Amino acid sequence: MENQNFIKLSLLASTLTLTSSLSFAHGQGDPSSGPKAIMADSRAPIGVMGDHLHKDGEFMVSYRYMGMDMGGNLDGNDSISPDQIVSTLSNPFGPPNNVRVVPTKMTSKMHMLGLMYAPSDDLTLMAMLNYVEKEMDHITYQGMMGTNRLGTFTTQSSGIGDTKLAGLYRLHKDGAHQLHANIGISIPTGDIDNSDTVLTPMNTRMELRLPYGMQLGSGTYDLEPGLTYTGNNGAYGWGSQFMSTVHLGENDEDYTLGDSYQLSAWASYRFKPSVSGSFRLTAKTVSDIDGQDPEIAAPVQTANPENYGGDFVNLGIGLNLVGQSAALRGHRLAFELESPIVQNVHGVQMDMNSMIIAGYQYAF
Predict the structure, then answer these.
(1) Which is deepest, 76, 233, 298, 317, by most CB within 10 Å?
(2) How far apart are CA 349 and CA 257, in angstroms?
(3) Distance from CA of residue 230 to its chain's centroid?
């Protein structure tokens, strides 16, 4: 399904690019002979949220798809095999004294519907609803010790995630530079008590509450303050954004997810008004989970709150497309592929392979 969605978006992108090119070839997108051109690079890479303001009275609707793949495991920044994990990693909820279940693969898919409205030139309001799908494959090892593999199983969770509300307030604007504050809050609409059937080391099937990383929300109200800068000079653009998530208090299951702090910096080049490309570096640090859900207690590394958080750096390559004429004018498609270049995790965690972000935007 993920590949099908990406293929459909790619076909739509090709249609949009071709139509834009034809309109420019006929002078319909040339500012000197028709409507003023809409610049593809007037938006940040699609993986950057809350990157721009709108004009007084303007609305924008958007859809983003974010798909992440994880495979294998890391101990700090070193790879570790499933056999090594069950031989060396202790289980704080024992017996058994060692971990006996190891995750091997995880996919996460998020669908984000956004709405922006500007009550003035200096203030834009934003709301985002999320639908999340997660799936994780595991190996179960037999008995209390050793490396005899009993079998495999998969757990799943899906549903509404946390809801985001934000205001973007302009602090500075001149011909080439803009700066605005991001002031956001996350509302805990995502479930934190999802469960599924697992294969135990005793070769039984039973339903257990899923670990923290498989839940759909934080369970707390979260502040999301930040600061965004953008600049441009001719066909070149650049920008940076600092964003943070600060979890307020403890949720109903007696824990608080780790706070996170993220800094992104990007550069773009506009090949023509309808097409631009970008590179982006994102550095993020996430603290440990504070507390523990008493219902999450199993011989698997993801049940241990100490195996969350870390320091990460990703590299993203992006493409922005915008229609210039007729029915496609102002409709935007954007894509970004992110890959990790630094992963230094707390404890033992899964290894991120890649993330695909695709989106559609239309302002009116």
Answers:
(1) 298
(2) 16
(3) 21
Any idea what the CATH number is for the domain that residue 206 is in? 2.40.128.130
SS3 257: coil
Q: Which amino acid, one-letter code, is at 65?
A: Y
Number of residues that make up the chain: 364
What phi and psi, each to the nearest 5 degrees, are found at residue 82? Answer: -60, -40
Q: What is the pTM of this model?
A: 0.87
Cis-peptide, bond into residue 103, ω within 30° of zero? no
Query: E strands within the chain?
Result: 59-75, 78-80, 101-120, 123-141, 149-160, 163-173, 177-187, 195-199, 205-209, 221-233, 236-248, 255-256, 260-272, 275-286, 290-291, 310-322, 331-345, 348-363
Question: What are the φ and ψ backbone dihedral angles of 24, each rounded to 5 degrees?
Answer: -70, -35
List per-residue pLDDT tens for the chain, 364 residues long. 444 444 344 444 443 333 333 333 333 334 344 678 999 999 999 999 999 999 999 999 999 999 999 999 999 999 999 999 999 999 999 899 999 999 999 999 999 999 999 999 999 999 999 999 999 999 999 999 999 999 999 999 999 999 999 999 999 999 899 999 999 999 999 999 999 999 999 999 999 999 999 999 999 999 999 999 999 999 999 999 999 999 999 999 999 999 999 999 999 999 999 999 999 999 999 999 999 999 999 999 999 999 999 999 999 999 999 999 989 999 999 999 999 999 999 999 999 999 999 999 999 9
What's the DSSP call for residue 17?
Answer: H
Cα–Cα distance measured from residue 62 to residue 134, given in angstroms and rounded to the nearest whole number: 22
Q: Tell me which residue range forms the domain holding 222.
A: 2-363
Q: Tell me how many domains the chain contains.
A: 1
Q: Note whether 104 and 309 are within 8 A (CB).
A: no
CA distance 232 to 268: 9
Residue 89 burial (C-beta neighbours within 10 Å; 0-12, 13-18, 19+): buried
The three-point CA angle 18-322-3 to 5° equals: 75
Angle at 264 between CA 262 and CA 267, to 5 degrees: 180
